[in-house]
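Action item from last week, closing it out:
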Amino acid sequence: MATSSVTIRVDAETKKEAARIADYFGFDLSSVTRAFYKQIVREHRIPLDLCEPRPNAESRESIKEAERIIKEGGKGYQSAGDMFAAMGL
């Protein structure tokens, strides 16, 4: 089977982080890319999870607290300055 090259342009930080993660699992980026292409062919789909990230537990608690404050008619502020002043900052 003949091989061909693929050129991928990505910012340096993304490449660095992806290489770090691949290395953690014992792979290099070329091996991961080949595996990704083979999975596309095998599954006849693009195997990506395209959804918004779910908030972590701390964020979910903050959201619940904000909803409770709104429901109970908590005090609002006209500006961030007003809010900081109310906190004594």
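Closing note: The chain has four helices and no strands.
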